[in-house]
Automatic annotation (TrEMBL):
PANTHER family per the UniProt record, alphabetical: LIPID II:GLYCINE GLYCYLTRANSFERASE
Classification via Pfam families: FemAB
Keywords: Acyltransferase, Cell shape, Cell wall biogenesis/degradation, Peptidoglycan synthesis, Transferase
Gene3D superfamilies reported in the protein's UniProt record: 3.40.630.30
Domain of life: Bacteria
Name under which the protein is recorded: Peptidoglycan bridge formation protein FemAB
Family, per entry: Belongs to the FemABX family.
Domain N-acetyltransferase per the UniProt entry, residue ranges: 210-374
Length: 380
């Protein structure tokens, strides 16, 4: 008797139930495949000899023009029991690679969400204050996950190549994320874990009369328009390219569709009906992700950005979430690096930093994979 696993196709509902049951990422839901219209998608499960489902995954295929071969990508996936995976990674990843190759993929990219290393808020704070530290990787981690370390060793030894090793924010999903642990917390303890400036800003927002509300189905269309104006203003101020309004309309329709286990919230901080800041959050199972934020230049003293974050944290706490995930950061912590400001903002809110096992490529056709990487480098 063997312990072999096989890959099978599953329905959208079976995929979504498997992701929710294992507290997987919302990026592995069938709705994410619908949102990414430039990719084709397939839904898979790992089945054991008894016919029991042991894991699930959403594969996005980005096909090369004319050739038809694809990059097979599982963003923040697959959704597997990684403590078990670490004992025999090949049992799980070899069938996946064989399946991707049979589907015409020139490379398989997995985005393993399991943790490799972590830094506490105190360690990150000390690093930000240390003039000799330019990177989080200059700081010794406070914890190292044996399962994550074992998986990294296996991937390295079996032909996988890091796909998230570039400077700054590389393409794909972030390897370093900032998360607020809500386990055993209440509002008082959350405030205590924030730095003094965060607490002052929350009080300033309250004193200025800032109120935060969540868009309803009845107000969503108008609220999305207001959100997008604020988001475009933020992009112009901070120097990034904004997504079109249609992307967010599709996101709301896809993730918030009837029957989806996830919920998308558009939260808006206002004073006397004037929008000051807004955020988009997704809640799935016991996790809440902060995805997008925006703020206007008006009435900065009212601290709408802090108010909308505090609202999201409290809502996640009240709903029994164990994590408020503030998503990606870079490793840059040098005082003269502008990216350090994002690390400081999230650390000051009480977030720890987690390094994920991250994104890895397995070339299935080395020539096409090299050509694909060359194209990405030239594109910048």
């Amino acid at each position: 008797m063997t312990n072999a696993l096989r890959i099978v196709s599953v329905s959208p509902s079976d995929l979504d139930l498997g992701v929710a049951a294992r507290s997987g990422s919302f990026l592995q839901l069938s709705s994410w495949g619908r949102l990414k219209s430039e990719w084709s998608s397939e839904r898979i499960a790992w089945i054991d000899e008894a016919g029991e489902q042991q894991g699930v995954g959403l594969i996005l295929h980005r096909r090369l023009p004319r050739i038809g071969r694809s990059l097979a990508y599982l963003p923040e996936g697959p959704v597997l029991p990684y403590d078990q995976v670490a004992l025999d990674p090949g049992r799980w990843f070899d069938p996946l690679a064989a399946h991707a190759k049979a589907q015409g993929a020139f490379a398989l990219r997995v985005g393993c969400p399991s943790t490799a290393r972590s830094w506490t808020p105190a360690t990150v704070k000390a690093g930000l204050a240390d003039d000799s530290a330019g990177s989080l990787y200059d700081l010794p981690p406070d914890s190292v996950d044996p399962a994550g370390s074992a998986l990294i060793r296996w991937l390295t030894a079996h032909g996988y190549q890091r796909a998230d090793g570039g400077a700054g924010f590389a393409a794909g999903q972030p390897r370093l994320t900032a998360g607020l642990d809500l386990t055993g917390q209440d509002e008082v303890s959350l405030l205590k874990d924030m730095n003094q400036q965060w607490r002052r800003n929350i009080k300033a927002a309250d004193k200025a009369g800032v109120t935060v509300r969540t868009a309803t189905p009845e107000t969503m269309a108008a609220d999305l328009e207001a959100w997008h104006r604020c988001y475009v203003e933020t992009a112009e101020r901070d120097g990034f390219t904004p997504r079109p309004a249609s992307y967010f309309r599709t996101m709301v329709d896809a993730i918030g569709a009837e029957g989806s286990p996830a919920r998308l919230d558009l939260n808006l901080a206002e004073v006397d009906g004037e929008l000051l800041a807004a955020s988009i959050c997704v809640t799935l199972a016991d996790r809440c992700w902060y995805l997008y934020g925006a703020s206007t230049s008006a009435r900065r003293e009212a601290r709408g950005a802090n108010a909308v974050q505090w609202y999201g944290m409290r809502r996640a706490l009240a709903e029994g979430c164990t994590v408020y995930d503030m998503r990606g950061i870079t490793a840059d912590i040098a005082a003269d690096n502008p990216l350090a400001g994002l690390v400081r903002f999230k650390q000051s809110a009480g977030c720890a930093v987690h390094e994920r096992v991250g994104e890895w490529d397995l070339p299935l056709n080395r020539l096409l994979h090299r050509a694909f990487l060359t194209y990405l480098r030239r594109r910048g």
